[in-house]
Amino acid sequence: MNEWSGQLWLGRDYGLILGETGRTAPHAHYAHQFILSSGSPVTVSLDGHLQTAYRLFIPSRQPHAIVHAPGTVLMAYVEPGAFDLDSLQKTLETAEFSPERLEQSLRQLPRRQADDERVQRALHTLDQQLNGKVSAQALAEAAHLSLSQLERLFVSQLGVPVRRLVMWRRLRLALDLALNGHTLTQAAHGAGFADSAHFSRTMKQLFGVTAGASLRHLRVHLLPL
């Protein structure tokens, strides 16, 4: 499996990669993913079916694997809970092969807030607990809900169970720390992972590559929040 190389722009609720991407193991992640190629088409396995195109949109939690991506590609990873899907897809359908213009378009898109204030309280509490153990019961109590009510609201409004969202936000925090100069071990501990191996396994589960392989050869640009 090849390592990724190129440039990475990381914002709060989206990230862009411009460069060469290797094959990935089958995986599924919370983010919507957009792949754009200006040279040869990209081949992706979607639920076991091969699809080849210059422009591919992979929705949140869609099982997939990158099979063949020759040359340089532009990829966007976008947090579903932050954007209206229709507006996002229209933006991606007309996107040019330019990370600067795509980043500007994503930055200008209006952000979506959870409709229910109880979900917002739970999310705020979640972010405060990420560097340690996150208790779903504590999130429910902060939102003045039962655990089962919280789970139903997360699935209906954010499209993902509590545990899955915790994992995604831990990974986002760990990447942020690693890209700010911390070692993988420091980043893992700072985001509440047991160790760097746990961080790397989670990275592979969600993106199909290990943390080391994905970060070692990427030049990083941290975008203003």
Structural class of the secondary structure composition?
Answer: alpha+beta
**C-alpha Rg (nearest Å):** 17 Å
> Assembly type of the shown chains?
single chain
**Alpha-carbon distance between the two ends:** 33 Å
Number of DSSP-assigned strands? 9
Main beta-sheet strand count, sense and barrel state: 6 strands, mixed
> What fraction of residues sit in β-strands?
15-25%
Can you describe what's shown?
The protein has 225 residues and is an alpha+beta fold. The protein is 41% helix and 22% strand. The protein has 9 helices and 9 strands. The chain has helices spanning 85-93, 99-108, 117-129, 136-142, 147-158, 162-179, 184-190, 196-207, 211-215, and strands at 5-10, 14-20, 32-37, 42-46, 49-53, 55-58, 64-68, 73-78, 218-222. The strands form 2 sheets. A 6-stranded mixed beta sheet has the order 6-3-8-2-1-9, covered by helices on one side. Strands 5-4-7 form a 3-stranded antiparallel beta sheet, with no helix packed on it. A hairpin with a 3-residue loop joins strand 1 (5-10) and strand 2. It is globular.
